[in-house]
């Protein structure tokens, strides 16, 4: 077992003498002179094999992990047994001569990119020709090749670098949303009023994740408004060491011809618990057995798979395309669908607002008293109607009955 | 018999919940009332999501027209029920903070006029000034 390092023992680590090095950090971690007993000042004489191995590793291969590479993961799987970065070329040296080279390359890149938009005419968004997309893709490939040829430059991460556990080579760490992308999703939904499913399609992020991002961002903004301090350095440090999905702003002329990076597959069919059993349903040959019937075979209230997928509208659009409708016709249909959806949303919103307006709020010293007007008649003639308000008389409680769920099933966030 | 508008306690231990009821005055608290006018949840609810500077709130459901009718025909609200009904303007508030404060000051001044204040303050002030001088 490696020794437990107590905080008081860090003080006993040897400090570099001022003449020895310019950097403040010690170049290697030496085995600290640990006292043999807590009350004793004499150092521990026996250095076990394991302890020696541990310190060998700390000063050898493990040394690379102490300072994470900028814009890269910091996983064990990226290094071989001797502490060499697997993906690095033979000419690559960490820290040495990198800043100048990178600075130069960045400069050239920025000049290239700055020059590019001026050449291209400003066409409205969404009317990019296939040629432009192709040329952009080709440009990216060329850039990649350049990076590969340059030995001193660090190549981009490969699958090897996404393995945090060297013994489990099948585990790959999945990328998370970058800060820019999360902000963009929030703005698209909150400011532009896009529906969650639309934002999901545009950014290639699943419906649930879009909802979570919007809720968390909302909370974050509220906290900022309340003057709470956020753990920004922590989140930055963690995000720096994780693979992230960057945000590609297609409205930006710099990103002309690029497509937003898809974060995850968005239209996967969720496995419904009712469909986990195997069924043997004999069907007459003459019968037309559709997916709808298949859904009903599992459960009478189960919708067909076509309606249970997160984005049925994408399938509809594809079907229209396959049926040979012209662009104008398809657009008209899509707009009609969108109008129906927005009308529904508006109706719900208005109903909610009307409910709030019907309430009478009386602010008092510590809390608001919110009065909702109800009708006594709703309790019905015998006073036992479910629409009646208040605790019922003469009805026993159901809460000790079998099968009553007491764990909250939803959280107001 | 006197009709009363009062609260009857339901809910569990440490989780009170009240029905605002119209009953005969001499019936038991939780017995079946003539009418359930509404409910009162005295546990403050946390501010609603999306409400940045929101305040906690208490949920009250009340059939206002019915309550107004019963008060009109002579139902007598209890103190707590009076407080709730006065918030929606069905009744005049029974107690006002300013009114009570006025009563307190009036009683205070009356007491002072009866018993004249003993002059204790001058010696205390003198001590203080001496201390200040020593410090200086």
TrEMBL record, chain A:
Lineage of the organism: Eukaryota, Fungi, Dikarya, Ascomycota, Pezizomycotina
Protein name: Uncharacterized protein
Automatic annotation (TrEMBL), chain B:
Keywords carried by this UniProt record: Ribonucleoprotein, Ribosomal protein
Keyword Ribonucleoprotein attached: yes
Highest taxon above the source species: Eukaryota
Protein name listed in UniProt: Ribosomal protein S16
Species assigned in the record: Macroventuria anomochaeta
């Amino acid at each position: 077992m490696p020794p437990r390092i107590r905080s008081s023992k860090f003080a006993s680590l040897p400090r570099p003498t001022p003449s020895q090095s310019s950097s403040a950090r010690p170049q290697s971690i030496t085995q600290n002179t640990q006292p043999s007993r807590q009350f004793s000042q004499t150092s521990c004489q026996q250095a076990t094999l394991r302890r020696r191995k541990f310190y060998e590793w700390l000063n050898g291969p493990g040394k690379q992990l102490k300072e994470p590479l900028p814009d890269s993961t910091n996983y064990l799987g990226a290094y071989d047994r001797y502490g060499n970065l697997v993906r690095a070329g033979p000419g690559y040296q960490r820290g040495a001569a990198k800043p100048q080279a990178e600075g130069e390359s960045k400069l050239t890149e920025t000049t290239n990119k700055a020059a590019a938009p001026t050449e291209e005419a400003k066409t409205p968004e969404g009317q990019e020709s296939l040629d432009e997309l192709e040329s952009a893709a080709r440009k990216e490939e060329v850039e990649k090749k350049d990076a590969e040829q340059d030995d001193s430059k660090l190549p981009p991460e490969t699958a090897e670098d996404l393995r945090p556990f060297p013994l489990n080579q099948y585990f790959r760490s999945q990328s998370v949303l970058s800060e820019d992308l999360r902000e963009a999703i929030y703005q698209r939904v909150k400011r532009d009023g896009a529906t969650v499913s639309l934002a999901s399609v545009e950014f290639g992020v699943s419906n649930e994740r879009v909802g979570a991002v919007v809720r968390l961002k909302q909370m974050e903004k509220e906290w900022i408004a309340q003057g709470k301090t956020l753990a920004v350095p922590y989140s930055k440090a963690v995000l720096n060491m994780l693979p992230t999905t960057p945000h590609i702003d297609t409205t930006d002329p710099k990103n002309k011809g690029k497509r937003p990076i898809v974060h995850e597959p968005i239209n996967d069919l969720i496995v419904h618990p009712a469909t986990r059993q195997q069924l043997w349903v004999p069907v007459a040959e003459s019968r037309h057995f559709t997916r709808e019937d298949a859904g009903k075979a599992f459960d009478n209230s189960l919708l067909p798979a076509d309606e249970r997928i997160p984005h049925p509208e994408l399938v509809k659009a594809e079907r229209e395309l396959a049926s040979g409708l012209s662009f104008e016709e398809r657009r008209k249909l899509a707009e009609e669908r969108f109008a129906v959806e927005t009308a529904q949303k508006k109706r719900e919103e208005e109903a909610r607002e009307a409910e709030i307006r019907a309430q009478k709020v009386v602010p008092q010293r510590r809390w608001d008293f919110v009065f909702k007007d109800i009708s006594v008649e709703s309790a019905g003639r015998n006073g036992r109607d479910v629409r009646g308000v208040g605790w019922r008389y003469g009805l026993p409680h159901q809460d000790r009955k079998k099968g009553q769920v007491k764990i909250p099933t939803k959280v107001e966030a | 018999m006197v009709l009363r508008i009062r609260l009857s306690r339901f809910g569990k231990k440490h989780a009170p919940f009240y029905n605002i009821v119209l009953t005969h005055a001499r019936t038991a608290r939780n017995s079946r009332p003539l009418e359930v006018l509404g409910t009162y949840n005295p546990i403050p609810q946390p501010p609603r999501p999306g409400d940045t500077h929101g305040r906690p709130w208490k949920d009250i459901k009340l059939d206002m027209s019915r309550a107004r009718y019963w008060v009109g025909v002579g139902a007598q609200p209890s103190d707590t029920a009076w407080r709730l009904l006065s918030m929606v303007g069905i009744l005049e508030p029974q107690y006002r903070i300013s009114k009570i404060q006025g009563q307190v000051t009036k009683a205070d001044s009356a007491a002072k006029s009866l018993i004249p204040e003993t002059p204790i303050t001058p010696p205390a002030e003198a001590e203080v000034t001496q201390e200040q001088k020593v410090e200086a």
